[in-house]
Amino acid sequence: MSNIWDEREESMELDEYQQRMIDRLLPIIAGKKVLDIGCGYCNIELELADVAGSFTAVDDSKIRVQKSQERCAKYDNINVQLADENLLPYFDVVFSFRTFQHMEKKQFKAYCKTAYRVLKNNGIFIFQVVERYLDYQPIRGKITHLAHTEKEISKALKMFDEVKYEREIIPRKKRNFPWLWIEAKKC
Ligand SMILES: C[S@@+](CC[C@H](N)C(=O)[O-])C[C@H]1O[C@@H](n2cnc3c(N)ncnc32)[C@H](O)[C@@H]1O
Question: In the prediction, which pLDDT does 141 show?
């Protein structure tokens, strides 16, 4: 069955926003096993393949997975797979970028549980969401945009031992985006 993300065009060039995620990952991923939830076209993986120990990149769009597999084929340490496949519990870092804001809250909560399950002790879960406004702009094309509040996130992350929140305002033409960055540690 096709997925709305199959039809949506997105750049295969690294963009200034992905660079923000890269800046957060760089100090912590050297030699580590890293999982990306909602990898898109693996722009981030391709940029960091030489630094990380390995990447498992998952997405629920078959077309994006297929394209990313082609793009990453020359790297033995990047494995791209469909998001519904089983994940083994062995990651040091789980991250997600510009993905949870397009997901129903129930699914977001399920991914928080998965992140906790697949992280090793001392592992870290890093992600970004949009904190406000998007509930008032629920559909763009067929893609939903949902805001997540700190309260909802802290509930979904209750099994983690330490959770840190950081706010960043992203300037946009029509309306600035209030991003919330989260780092949750499993001790
Ligand atoms: C805006 S794109 C971001 C891609 C990439 N993280 C980036 O920043 O370039 C959102 C991605 O999330 C994926 N996605 C949406 N819902 C998902 C789900 N339930 N599980 C896994 N991936 C999902 C989409 O297929 C899409 O590739």
Answer: 58
Which ligand 1 atom is at minimum distance from the Cα of 5? 25
Output the residue whose Cα is nearest ligand 1's atom 16: 103
**Distance between CA atoms of 35 and 39, rounded to whole angstroms?**
9
The alpha carbon of 24 and the centre of ligand 1 are apart by a number of angstroms equal to 19
State both tokens at 51. 């630094």
Counted residue by residue, the chain has a size of 187
Q: Which of 7, 2, 15, 32 is nearest to 98 (CA)?
A: 15
**pTM, full prediction:** 0.95
Any ligand 1 atom below 6 A from CB of 99: yes
Contact of 85 with 58, CB cutoff 8 Å: yes
Phi, psi of 112 (to 5 degrees): -60, -40
For residue range 12-65, list pLDDT tens digits in order: 899 999 999 999 999 999 999 999 999 999 999 999 999 999 999 999 999 999
Token code pair at residue 52: 């990380």
The set of residues, in sequence order, having a beta carbon less than 8 Å from that of 73 and lying 6+ positions away, is none
What three-state secondary structure class fits 33?
strand
Domains of the chain plus CATH, in order, are 15-186 (3.40.50.150)
